[in-house]
Write a structure and sequence with these properties.
Length: about 160
């Protein structure tokens, strides 16, 4: 992909720019909800930012700061998930919101099967109780819905009136 395609992608070109912008937008919304959840004292045992820092520090046997956890959170939400969404969104069914919800559910499933066991919480974060799995699903669905709509708007695919 050349610079011109990055800023003016054709329908057949992966729109990385739209994926990154949408991923960042959705990550900001998700972060606000996570901070609100934490401030309200809901599920204090669930702290994905702390878990990201913990998992990233494990190979070296170090303890990383929460700042590293926040950076990791934004890298995952903006770059990793944003680009993956840009790559697969056209193959997902439905409207931008539905495609985003499907993607959010898939991202949640990956978190529950891969990340939560690495963080020491077991499959589907069962060691934290069932509420943690439900809360993270809701957060991922919000993330996905925002991601889908933001991607469509940035990629100029959004046609709310048909």
């Amino acid at each position: 992909m050349n610079v011109r395609q990055f800023f003016h992608p054709t329908p057949m070109t992966l729109d990385v720019r739209a994926g990154l912008i949408a991923g960042f937008t959705a990550t900001v919304v998700l972060s606000i909800l996570m901070i609100a959840q934490s401030s309200a004292g809901l599920l204090p045992q669930l702290n994905p930012i702390e878990d990201i820092a913990h998992v990233a520090g494990q190979p070296a046997g170090t303890i990383l700061s929460l700042l590293f956890g926040w950076i990791g959170h934004f890298v995952l939400g903006t770059i990793v998930w944003g680009i993956i969404y840009a790559a697969i969104q056209a193959s997902l069914p439905g409207t931008p919101v539905v495609r985003g919800l499907i993607f959010g559910a898939l991202a949640w499933l990956a978190m529950m099967i891969i990340f939560m066991p690495l963080a020491g919480h077991g499959l589907f974060a069962l060691s934290l109780g069932g509420q943690a799995a439900v809360a993270t699903l809701v957060l991922h669905l919000v993330y996905g819905a925002v991601l889908g709509v933001a991607y469509a708007r940035v990629a100029h695919e959004w046609h709310p009136l048909g």
